[in-house]
Write a structure and sequence with these properties.
It is a single chain. Helices cover about 40% and strands about 20% of the residues. The protein is of the alpha/beta class. α4 (about 90-100) links the parallel β4 and β5 (about 105-110). α1 (about 10-20) runs parallel beside α8 (about 205-220) and α7 runs parallel beside α8 (about 205-220). It is globular and about 40 Å long.
Amino acid sequence: MTWIKICGVTNLEDALTAVDAGADAIGFVFYEKSPRKVDPETARRIVGELPATVDKVGVFVNQFEEPICAVADEVGLNAIQLHGDHEDPHVADLVVKRRPNIKVVVGISMHHPNPEGWAMMWRPDVVHAFLVDAGDSSQYGGTGKVFDWQTNRPRVEVIARLGRVVVAGGLNPSNVTEAISILKPWGVDVASGLEASPGKKDPEEVRAFIAAVRGAQKGN
């Protein structure tokens, strides 16, 4: 089963729609400059209504371990996503040392000059999955843009030998089947591709996306 994360959730209605449709994870963005930013108190209320089986992922950009652990504790996160262009792999080590039950997802920009080399800088026993995305230093995610899947396939395959790969960047119900066919990821992640407006999901798009992913699995 392809792991499906619906990211940039800011309200309970969207979270429950995603879970009811079959999402495996809900992502909360704690980056000040994101249009999908949510405060910890709101995220905590949403998490309190979600099933225990659903991953609750906090997205952080260039943060240290102390504030990350504090937010994870307050909200009830069981996973964090480190998504900046100046991330220190040692921060992941320290988070896992302090909170052994936290899963770490590492964002890897495919616009990085050497994304596979950057992935190799992280300890494989600490990283739960690598999230390959189309973001860059001007916008870390939620760009609605895809990276060239075919051209980058060899690079993604190298990263996949290091650990699980989650594909993100411009995914939507119309193109996710192709992305899965080319890259064969462990998981997929979507934010802006399902929105009616920044921070608000379109319920029909959410359902269509998850149905497309499950349909792609049956086709393989």
